[in-house]
Amino acid sequence: MPSRTELRTTLTSYLARHPAESGPLAPVHAALDATHSGPATVTCSAVVIDRDGKVLHVPDSHTGSGLPRTTPQDSDRNLLATALRAIREQTGIQPGDLCLTPQYLRTPIDITPAPGAADTPIADFRFAFYLARTAHAEASWRPALDPRGKATALDGQPVPLNASALIYNSRGEYLLHLRDMRDDIWAPGCWALLGGGHEAGDLTPEDTVRRELREEAGIHPEQLETFLDEEILDADGLTLPVRIFCALWEGDPAQLPLTEGVMLAWFPPATVPRLRLGGETLALVQRHASKA
Question: Helix, strand, or coil here: 214?
Fold first, then answer.
Protein backbone atom coordinates (compact mmCIF):
# COMPACT_ATOMS: atom_id res chain seq x y z
CA MET A 1 0.00 0.00 0.00
CA PRO A 2 1.52 3.35 -0.99
CA SER A 3 2.28 5.38 2.15
CA ARG A 4 1.60 9.02 2.91
CA THR A 5 5.33 9.58 2.49
CA GLU A 6 5.23 8.23 -1.08
CA LEU A 7 2.16 10.34 -1.84
CA ARG A 8 3.83 13.50 -0.53
CA THR A 9 7.06 12.77 -2.41
CA THR A 10 5.17 12.10 -5.64
CA LEU A 11 3.09 15.25 -5.24
CA THR A 12 6.17 17.38 -4.51
CA SER A 13 7.97 16.03 -7.60
CA TYR A 14 4.89 16.64 -9.72
CA LEU A 15 4.54 20.26 -8.53
CA ALA A 16 8.21 20.89 -9.27
CA ARG A 17 7.35 20.06 -12.88
CA HIS A 18 3.95 21.81 -12.88
CA PRO A 19 4.25 24.74 -10.42
CA ALA A 20 1.13 26.43 -11.78
CA GLU A 21 -0.96 23.65 -10.23
CA SER A 22 0.14 24.41 -6.66
CA GLY A 23 -3.09 26.27 -5.96
CA PRO A 24 -5.56 23.64 -7.23
CA LEU A 25 -3.60 20.89 -5.47
CA ALA A 26 -3.31 22.74 -2.14
CA PRO A 27 -6.24 20.72 -0.66
CA VAL A 28 -4.40 17.50 -1.52
CA HIS A 29 -1.29 18.80 0.26
CA ALA A 30 -3.41 19.68 3.27
CA ALA A 31 -5.06 16.27 3.37
CA LEU A 32 -1.69 14.51 3.21
CA ASP A 33 -0.34 16.73 6.00
CA ALA A 34 -3.32 16.02 8.28
CA THR A 35 -2.31 14.64 11.65
CA HIS A 36 -4.61 11.61 11.66
CA SER A 37 -2.87 8.32 11.06
CA GLY A 38 -3.48 5.73 8.38
CA PRO A 39 -3.13 5.88 4.60
CA ALA A 40 -4.79 8.64 2.63
CA THR A 41 -7.34 7.40 0.13
CA VAL A 42 -6.46 8.08 -3.51
CA THR A 43 -7.11 6.50 -6.86
CA CYS A 44 -4.65 5.69 -9.65
CA SER A 45 -5.57 5.78 -13.33
CA ALA A 46 -3.71 5.03 -16.53
CA VAL A 47 -3.37 6.58 -19.97
CA VAL A 48 -2.35 3.72 -22.30
CA ILE A 49 -1.39 4.87 -25.80
CA ASP A 50 -0.95 2.56 -28.78
CA ARG A 51 1.35 3.15 -31.75
CA ASP A 52 -1.42 4.96 -33.64
CA GLY A 53 -1.76 7.47 -30.81
CA LYS A 54 -5.09 6.08 -29.60
CA VAL A 55 -5.95 5.90 -25.91
CA LEU A 56 -7.36 2.89 -24.08
CA HIS A 57 -10.86 3.30 -22.60
CA VAL A 58 -12.87 0.93 -20.40
CA PRO A 59 -16.62 0.90 -19.66
CA ASP A 60 -17.62 3.31 -16.89
CA SER A 61 -21.02 3.25 -15.17
CA HIS A 62 -21.08 7.04 -14.77
CA THR A 63 -19.58 8.38 -18.00
CA GLY A 64 -20.04 5.44 -20.37
CA SER A 65 -16.29 4.99 -20.75
CA GLY A 66 -13.13 6.17 -19.05
CA LEU A 67 -9.54 5.39 -18.25
CA PRO A 68 -8.64 2.31 -16.18
CA ARG A 69 -8.78 3.39 -12.53
CA THR A 70 -8.68 1.77 -9.09
CA THR A 71 -7.68 2.36 -5.47
CA PRO A 72 -4.42 1.05 -3.95
CA GLN A 73 -4.32 -2.29 -2.16
CA ASP A 74 -1.90 -3.71 0.40
CA SER A 75 -0.27 -5.80 -2.36
CA ASP A 76 0.63 -2.72 -4.46
CA ARG A 77 4.29 -1.82 -3.94
CA ASN A 78 3.79 1.74 -5.21
CA LEU A 79 1.35 4.01 -7.02
CA LEU A 80 2.59 2.85 -10.42
CA ALA A 81 1.77 -0.74 -9.46
CA THR A 82 -1.80 0.33 -8.63
CA ALA A 83 -2.23 1.84 -12.10
CA LEU A 84 -0.82 -1.32 -13.70
CA ARG A 85 -3.21 -3.48 -11.69
CA ALA A 86 -6.13 -1.36 -12.89
CA ILE A 87 -5.08 -1.99 -16.48
CA ARG A 88 -4.63 -5.72 -15.92
CA GLU A 89 -7.89 -6.26 -14.04
CA GLN A 90 -10.07 -4.09 -16.30
CA THR A 91 -8.62 -4.91 -19.73
CA GLY A 92 -6.50 -8.08 -19.45
CA ILE A 93 -3.38 -6.25 -20.65
CA GLN A 94 -0.34 -7.42 -18.66
CA PRO A 95 2.49 -5.16 -17.44
CA GLY A 96 4.88 -6.89 -19.86
CA ASP A 97 2.74 -5.61 -22.75
CA LEU A 98 3.46 -2.04 -21.66
CA CYS A 99 6.46 0.27 -21.35
CA LEU A 100 7.12 3.65 -19.80
CA THR A 101 7.07 6.91 -21.75
CA PRO A 102 10.34 8.85 -22.08
CA GLN A 103 8.55 12.07 -21.12
CA TYR A 104 7.16 10.92 -17.76
CA LEU A 105 8.85 7.61 -16.85
CA ARG A 106 7.52 6.64 -13.36
CA THR A 107 6.14 10.08 -12.48
CA PRO A 108 2.44 10.94 -12.89
CA ILE A 109 1.30 12.63 -16.05
CA ASP A 110 -1.42 14.29 -14.00
CA ILE A 111 -2.70 14.63 -10.42
CA THR A 112 -6.35 15.68 -10.19
CA PRO A 113 -7.91 16.71 -6.87
CA ALA A 114 -11.17 14.96 -6.04
CA PRO A 115 -14.25 16.40 -4.28
CA GLY A 116 -13.32 16.56 -0.61
CA ALA A 117 -16.07 14.47 0.94
CA ALA A 118 -15.28 12.28 3.93
CA ASP A 119 -14.11 8.74 3.20
CA THR A 120 -13.63 9.49 -0.50
CA PRO A 121 -10.39 9.69 -2.51
CA ILE A 122 -8.56 12.99 -2.17
CA ALA A 123 -6.98 12.83 -5.63
CA ASP A 124 -6.37 10.73 -8.71
CA PHE A 125 -2.74 10.01 -9.64
CA ARG A 126 -2.57 9.33 -13.38
CA PHE A 127 0.29 7.52 -15.10
CA ALA A 128 1.07 7.14 -18.81
CA PHE A 129 2.22 4.01 -20.65
CA TYR A 130 2.92 2.99 -24.21
CA LEU A 131 1.73 -0.30 -25.65
CA ALA A 132 4.98 -2.22 -26.15
CA ARG A 133 3.44 -4.96 -28.29
CA THR A 134 0.10 -6.00 -29.70
CA ALA A 135 -2.19 -7.09 -26.88
CA HIS A 136 -5.82 -8.19 -26.82
CA ALA A 137 -7.79 -5.82 -24.61
CA GLU A 138 -11.32 -6.06 -23.28
CA ALA A 139 -11.72 -2.35 -23.96
CA SER A 140 -11.79 0.19 -26.78
CA TRP A 141 -9.18 2.47 -28.33
CA ARG A 142 -10.22 6.04 -29.01
CA PRO A 143 -8.44 8.90 -30.79
CA ALA A 144 -9.32 11.36 -28.01
CA LEU A 145 -6.33 12.28 -25.87
CA ASP A 146 -6.21 12.84 -22.15
CA PRO A 147 -8.80 15.57 -21.37
CA ARG A 148 -6.25 17.77 -19.53
CA GLY A 149 -4.09 17.82 -22.66
CA LYS A 150 -0.86 16.47 -21.16
CA ALA A 151 -0.80 13.43 -23.44
CA THR A 152 -0.51 15.53 -26.60
CA ALA A 153 3.27 15.00 -26.75
CA LEU A 154 2.98 11.23 -26.39
CA ASP A 155 3.14 9.50 -29.78
CA GLY A 156 2.97 5.89 -28.59
CA GLN A 157 6.35 4.93 -30.06
CA PRO A 158 8.56 3.03 -27.56
CA VAL A 159 12.21 4.08 -27.47
CA PRO A 160 15.23 2.76 -25.52
CA LEU A 161 14.92 4.22 -22.02
CA ASN A 162 17.90 2.38 -20.55
CA ALA A 163 21.41 1.97 -21.89
CA SER A 164 24.16 -0.45 -20.86
CA ALA A 165 27.81 -0.90 -21.80
CA LEU A 166 29.45 -4.17 -22.75
CA ILE A 167 33.02 -3.27 -21.78
CA TYR A 168 35.87 -5.55 -22.87
CA ASN A 169 39.68 -5.45 -22.91
CA SER A 170 42.39 -6.61 -25.29
CA ARG A 171 42.68 -9.91 -23.36
CA GLY A 172 39.11 -10.78 -24.34
CA GLU A 173 37.73 -10.26 -20.81
CA TYR A 174 34.45 -8.55 -19.93
CA LEU A 175 33.83 -6.05 -17.14
CA LEU A 176 30.81 -7.03 -15.02
CA HIS A 177 29.11 -5.22 -12.15
CA LEU A 178 27.88 -7.02 -9.01
CA ARG A 179 24.61 -5.32 -8.15
CA ASP A 180 23.28 -4.54 -4.69
CA MET A 181 20.99 -7.02 -2.95
CA ARG A 182 17.86 -4.87 -2.93
CA ASP A 183 14.30 -5.94 -3.70
CA ASP A 184 13.43 -2.67 -5.41
CA ILE A 185 15.96 -2.94 -8.25
CA TRP A 186 16.34 -5.08 -11.34
CA ALA A 187 18.51 -8.23 -10.94
CA PRO A 188 19.45 -7.77 -7.26
CA GLY A 189 22.65 -9.57 -6.23
CA CYS A 190 23.51 -10.47 -9.83
CA TRP A 191 26.43 -9.72 -12.12
CA ALA A 192 25.37 -7.51 -15.01
CA LEU A 193 26.55 -4.76 -17.34
CA LEU A 194 27.09 -1.21 -16.16
CA GLY A 195 24.34 1.14 -17.20
CA GLY A 196 21.03 2.59 -16.14
CA GLY A 197 17.96 4.58 -16.98
CA HIS A 198 17.21 7.73 -18.92
CA GLU A 199 17.24 10.97 -16.91
CA ALA A 200 16.35 14.55 -17.69
CA GLY A 201 19.13 16.02 -19.78
CA ASP A 202 19.91 12.78 -21.64
CA LEU A 203 19.18 13.52 -25.29
CA THR A 204 20.22 10.10 -26.61
CA PRO A 205 20.87 6.59 -25.25
CA GLU A 206 24.60 7.31 -25.64
CA ASP A 207 24.19 10.31 -23.32
CA THR A 208 22.55 7.97 -20.81
CA VAL A 209 25.24 5.30 -20.89
CA ARG A 210 28.11 7.81 -20.73
CA ARG A 211 26.52 9.51 -17.72
CA GLU A 212 25.93 6.17 -15.99
CA LEU A 213 29.51 5.01 -16.59
CA ARG A 214 30.84 8.30 -15.26
CA GLU A 215 28.56 8.40 -12.20
CA GLU A 216 28.72 4.71 -11.24
CA ALA A 217 32.36 3.95 -11.89
CA GLY A 218 34.29 6.95 -13.20
CA ILE A 219 34.79 5.30 -16.60
CA HIS A 220 35.18 7.55 -19.65
CA PRO A 221 35.48 5.35 -22.77
CA GLU A 222 36.89 7.12 -25.82
CA GLN A 223 34.51 5.40 -28.20
CA LEU A 224 31.16 3.66 -27.83
CA GLU A 225 29.62 1.57 -30.58
CA THR A 226 25.99 0.52 -30.73
CA PHE A 227 25.85 -3.25 -30.36
CA LEU A 228 22.12 -4.05 -30.31
CA ASP A 229 18.74 -3.19 -28.78
CA GLU A 230 17.00 -5.61 -26.44
CA GLU A 231 13.99 -5.77 -24.13
CA ILE A 232 13.94 -6.82 -20.48
CA LEU A 233 11.32 -6.72 -17.74
CA ASP A 234 11.92 -4.14 -15.03
CA ALA A 235 11.13 -4.41 -11.31
CA ASP A 236 7.47 -3.49 -11.99
CA GLY A 237 7.10 -6.14 -14.73
CA LEU A 238 7.06 -3.54 -17.52
CA THR A 239 8.88 -4.07 -20.79
CA LEU A 240 12.04 -1.97 -20.77
CA PRO A 241 13.75 -1.23 -24.13
CA VAL A 242 17.53 -1.15 -23.62
CA ARG A 243 20.30 -0.10 -26.04
CA ILE A 244 23.54 -2.00 -25.57
CA PHE A 245 26.82 -0.28 -26.44
CA CYS A 246 30.26 -1.87 -26.51
CA ALA A 247 33.56 -0.21 -25.63
CA LEU A 248 37.22 -1.17 -25.34
CA TRP A 249 38.75 -0.24 -21.97
CA GLU A 250 42.04 -1.40 -20.43
CA GLY A 251 41.77 -0.12 -16.85
CA ASP A 252 41.95 -1.76 -13.43
CA PRO A 253 38.45 -2.00 -11.88
CA ALA A 254 39.95 -2.10 -8.38
CA GLN A 255 41.05 1.53 -8.87
CA LEU A 256 37.62 2.81 -9.91
CA PRO A 257 35.49 5.02 -7.60
CA LEU A 258 32.47 2.70 -7.56
CA THR A 259 29.36 4.51 -6.29
CA GLU A 260 26.71 1.83 -6.89
CA GLY A 261 26.73 -1.91 -6.42
CA VAL A 262 29.28 -4.12 -4.67
CA MET A 263 32.22 -4.52 -7.04
CA LEU A 264 33.51 -4.61 -10.62
CA ALA A 265 35.66 -7.40 -12.05
CA TRP A 266 37.03 -8.74 -15.34
CA PHE A 267 35.85 -12.21 -16.45
CA PRO A 268 36.85 -14.33 -19.45
CA PRO A 269 33.86 -15.61 -21.45
CA ALA A 270 34.43 -19.18 -20.20
CA THR A 271 33.90 -18.06 -16.59
CA VAL A 272 30.80 -15.96 -17.15
CA PRO A 273 28.33 -18.94 -17.27
CA ARG A 274 29.34 -19.87 -13.72
CA LEU A 275 28.16 -16.53 -12.32
CA ARG A 276 24.73 -15.54 -11.10
CA LEU A 277 23.74 -13.22 -13.93
CA GLY A 278 21.04 -10.66 -14.53
CA GLY A 279 18.83 -10.74 -17.61
CA GLU A 280 20.51 -11.50 -20.93
CA THR A 281 24.06 -10.79 -19.72
CA LEU A 282 25.37 -14.23 -20.67
CA ALA A 283 23.84 -14.13 -24.16
CA LEU A 284 25.25 -10.65 -24.75
CA VAL A 285 28.78 -11.64 -23.68
CA GLN A 286 28.71 -14.82 -25.75
CA ARG A 287 27.35 -13.06 -28.80
CA HIS A 288 29.99 -10.35 -28.62
CA ALA A 289 32.80 -12.83 -27.92
CA SER A 290 31.81 -14.91 -30.94
CA LYS A 291 32.30 -11.88 -33.19
CA ALA A 292 35.45 -10.53 -31.54
Answer: helix
Q: Which residues contact 271 (CB under 8 A, 6 or more apart)?
A: none
Please state, in angstroms and rounded to a whole number, the distance separating the CA atoms of residues 196 and 216.
Answer: 9
Asked whether 7 and 43 are in contact (CB, 8 A), the reply is no
List the one residue out of 196, 184, 197, 181 whose CA is nearest residue 276. 181
Listing DSSP states for 122-185 in one string gives SEEEEEEEEE-S----SSEEES---TTSTTTT--------EEEEEEE-TTS-EEEEE----TTS
Q: Can you name the residues that pair with 71 across neighbouring β-strands?
A: none
pTM: 0.82
Residue 61's pLDDT is what?
A: 58
Sign, CA torsion 197/174/290/245: positive
pLDDT band at 117 (very low <50, low <70, confident <90, very high): low
Do 253 and 264 contact (CB within 8 A), yes or no? yes
Closest CA to 79 of 32, 18, 117, 37: 32
Maximum pairwise Cα distance, the chain: 68
